Amino acid sequence: MENTNQSATPNETPTSRFGGVARGGADLFRRAFSVAAQEEMNQIGENLREETVERITPMARSTGMMLAGGAIAAYGTIYVVNGIVRALSTRMPAWLASLLTGTVIALGGLALLESGRRQLSSSDSQTTADEPAVGAQPQVQ
Q1: Percentage of the chain surpassing pLDDT 70?
Q2: 27 vs 47: CA distance, rounded Å
Q3: What does the H/E/C string look like for 17-79?
Q4: How far apart are CA 4 and CA 98, in angstroms?
Q5: Distance (Å, rounded) from C-alpha 91 to C-alpha 141?
Q6: What would the pLDDT profile of 18-31 be if each residue is shown by its tens digit?
Q7: Among candidates 3, 19, 1, 20, which has minimal Cα distance to 11?
Q8: What region does 135 belong to: left with phi over 0, alpha with psi -120 to 50, or beta?
Q9: Cβ-based neighbours of 45, under 8 Å, separated by 6 or more
Q10: Is pTM, for the whole model, over 0.85?
Q11: Are 94 and 74 contacting, i.e. CB atoms less than 8 angstroms apart?
Q12: pLDDT digit string, tens, across residues 76-124
């Protein structure tokens, strides 16, 4: 019997031809899944970027406004302190007026720092009282 299939080589068996077709089909299937997975990952990444930008934008805008307000307040404070020192220097030496004004500002800053530290420690103690310690056994009631 003579093989009439011109595309096959004379020594190639039908099984090996089927194996080659199967490998080719598997490669095409793998490439199709790879492309689909890549497109899905790109879409997920785009959605994640959009969600992140939507969540961060108001926070960034608020933070920018706070920083700008803080900078303007700092410049304003410099002028106010300079005015206070000049007003006090009409009644006492300029160095003493600067010293007194600086001392009052430093004490005010320390009071705010201590107040913030107390609030932070009280919020930490409330959080730790509500949460069980790491490794602690839950209590059954």
Answers
A1: 75
A2: 30
A3: HHHHHHHHHHHHHHHHHHHHHHHHHHHHHHHHHHHHHHHHHHHHHHHHHHHHHHHHHHHHHHH
A4: 109
A5: 72
A6: 677 777 777 777 78
A7: 3
A8: left
A9: none
A10: no
A11: no
A12: 888 888 888 888 888 889 888 888 888 888 888 888 888 888 888 887 7
Copy the structure tokens of residue 24.
């080719």
Taking residue 98's Cβ as centre, other Cβ atoms within 10 Å add up to 16
Rounded Cα distance, 97 and 92, in Å: 7
CA distance 117 to 110: 10
Kindly report the length of the chain.
141
Backbone torsion region of residue 137, taken as left when φ is above 0, otherwise alpha when ψ lies between -120 and 50, otherwise beta: beta
Task: Let me know: does 85 contact 97? Beta carbons within 8 Å.
Answer: yes
